[in-house]
Amino acid sequence: MDHLSLLNESQRAAVLHTEGPAMIIAGAGSGKTRVLTYRIAHLISQGVDPFNILALTFTNKAAKEMRHRIEKVIGNEAKNIWMGTFHSVFSRILRSEAEKIGYPKSFTIYDTDDSKTLIRNIVKEMNLDDKLYKPNVVLGRISSAKNKLISVKQYLNDAVIQADDDAAMRPKIGKIYETYQNRCFRAGAMDFDDLLFNTNVLFKDHPDALNKYQNIFKFVMVDEYQDTNYSQYLITRKLAAQNRNIVVVGDDAQSIYAFRGADIQNILNFERDYPELQVFKLEQNYRSTKNIVHAANSVIKNNQAQLRKDVFTDNEQGPLIEVIKANSDNEEGKLVATTIFEEKMGNHFSYDDFAILYRTNAQSRAMEEALRRMNIKYKIIGGLSFYQRKEIKDLIAYLRLTVNPNDEQALRRIINYPKRGIGETTEQKIFVIANDTNHAVWEVVMNAGEFLGNRVGTAIEKFSIMIRDFARIAENSDAFEVAKHVAKHSGLVDDLYQDKTVEGLARYENIQELLNGIKEYVDDPEKEDKSLSAFLQDIALITDADTKADDDGEFVTLMTIHSAKGLEFKNVFIVGMEENLFPSQMMLNSRADLEEERRLFYVAITRAEKRLYLTYATSRYQWGNLRACEKSRFLDEIDPKYINFKYGDGGASGGNVLDRVLQRKSNLVAPAPRMQVASNYTPPADFKASDTSSLAAGMKVEHPKFGFGTVTKMDTQGNSTKAIINFEEVGEKTLLLSFAKLKIHA
Ligand SMILES: Nc1ncnc2c1ncn2[C@@H]1O[C@H](COP(=O)(O)OP(=O)(O)OP(=O)(O)O)[C@@H](O)[C@H]1O
Ligand SMILES: [Mg+2]
């Protein structure tokens, strides 16, 4: 058999095991997924009907890849294998069985947004505090109940379950759960968790249906078994109960979804459920160099709760792991982008050979900016590009409206967010009135009382007053001051801050990250115009230059470590190797959490085939302030003999934060050519700015960067005064007096 020769002895033994339960718990890159793939191909080549094979993967992408590879071995028949994620396979089954459990055949699947909107409505109808019963929080509770197969009835009747769920804090969750389920049912809809929950209901209440699928799925296989939840575990156990032909593969060292209900316990349950179980050991890693494999081993050794595994490789020693220290998150991005560029050019890699992995989505900003500046195409997997995220667009919409109240798209986006009682009908009316009476939309908004009557009119006018206040502040402040003020006083930050779920926190962090970006912008000595409109223009250009996600051609892959599971890349960068970032601050409270975090690091390291880079910054903007950062404890856990240390431009010296700030400023590259000024002027060492309160047209001035010039016009609006100056070398410039350093000569 041709394809069997492409396997080592243990892999082949596992593939040839075609009857009875088997488990492969083995290290990363040892060929677990390959064994499943070849086992399926082998079964089919032995005459097994592909329709009798069920293979469950963690992502649709993984399923597609597996099918593709099987196709290469056995041809078109591969199309008939039941293969996909739990959700995709069982929603397909429910399509034909839904009527048995009271749902229409053509039931709808609610996505997360639908679910949240529904919950929001229910909370409103029940007159509950929507700050306490945030849709995210409530949905999280309902989801976790469903994944443990806790029905509404059980939830409502079981004090222990309620106590576990901290019901004292939110006593109405059970009631919301009930109404939510009733509404979904009435609407003929299932949410994501229902797909698994209802499959369990189907198999429990309808033995005939269970029996039918037990007969269809004569062979059941599960990849990434360590990350299944209870609901998924039970489905596979039931399906395999008759034939007992079930093979699961996984790696306890890569279990990283406990926070979503995944349970390593399922591995132990598996051993208990099938005493006749055959266990196969795979110890040889085929993916990575010796240095990478040894480094990964030295890290995971620090976990107490770990099955001992000896992973080795016959691959080349490979280069040492590069640890790169940067002075700031921006420099970190720059170093990563430059390294990618140089490696690609020097070693003939394609951009496809590079992946940048991070702990939290917010970290993509600095990376994205650096890659764009170097014109390197990239693609973000499983997560929106930073500027496409809803919360970022919301804040930017406020800023746009602040700068230009006629910006109708921005207005539509935020007129009722956060909620201020301006309904959709009213919003429509504003636009209709503007059209009918030939007024600017913003004029209608400002005079809404007159146009729309008192009650709703007042709400709209209040909104317009707020925006005008922002505009007034924008006249005298730099972009960061305004943005900070707007984030706070628009109610946006408050709204996000109320939401304490992981997702909610991420959104809050994203807003902070945008503010950090603006702060860096105004702190940048190269940016002469610090105003909000200048900033908005700057990022609008960045967004325009965005590389399209589904562009043809090669691109660097950016993603969180969580979404990198099972994948491999020739060159991997793990960025943000800092305390409180990775390990995450939220995971430092217990050994169990820290060990999950360490498994995540293990997953990240083991994605790399040839080269691994670990980067960290000694300072990072957080909450609008430049903070000193400490390198991650995980770096110290790697045996130093596998590491080569490298430093960013000015990093070697150490010193205090102030030193580093100064250093980092002097190291900044000129960000965009159009910001550069062709002036040969060098300011005298004793340059001292004058008091400009009496500056007037006709006066001669000196500027530390633009040199000598003559004031042609003064322009005062509110408290903000601008001077239009004709400089001898660089031409006309408009400078905000509160920022410009000018020495008056006449
Ligand atoms: N016997 C072999 N000969 C050659 N290459 C192999 C062999 N076994 C596995 N590989 C290759 O090694 C790499 C890792 O294999 P695979 O992805 O199946 O590992 P895995 O155990 O599933 O890893 P992970 O734990 O990350 O999911 C793949 O590129 C695979 O093709
Ligand atoms: Mg795998």
Automatic annotation (TrEMBL):
One of its GO terms (biological process) is recombinational repair. ATP binds at residues 26-33. One of its GO terms (cellular component) is cytosol. Keywords: ATP-binding, DNA-binding, Helicase, Hydrolase, Isomerase, Nucleotide-binding. It comes from the Bacteria. It catalyses: Couples ATP hydrolysis with the unwinding of duplex DNA by translocating in the 3'-5' direction; ATP + H2O = ADP + phosphate + H(+). Residues 5-289 form the UvrD-like helicase ATP-binding domain. GO terms for molecular function: 3'-5' DNA helicase activity; ATP binding; ATP hydrolysis activity; DNA binding. Pfam families: PcrA_UvrD_tudor (PF21196), UvrD-helicase (PF00580), UvrD_C (PF13361). It is an enzyme of class 5 (isomerase). Residues 290-566 form the UvrD-like helicase C-terminal domain. Signal peptide: none annotated. The keyword Translocase does not apply. Its EC number is 5.6.2.4. InterPro entries: DExx_box_DNA_helicase_dom_sf, DNA_helicase_UvrD-like_C, DNA_helicase_UvrD/REP, P-loop_NTPase, UvrD-like_ATP-bd. The keyword DNA-binding applies. PANTHER family: ATP-DEPENDENT DNA HELICASE SRS2 (PTHR11070:SF2), UVRD / RECB / PCRA DNA HELICASE FAMILY MEMBER (PTHR11070). Belongs to the helicase family. UvrD subfamily. This is DNA 3'-5' helicase. It comes from Pontibacter diazotrophicus.
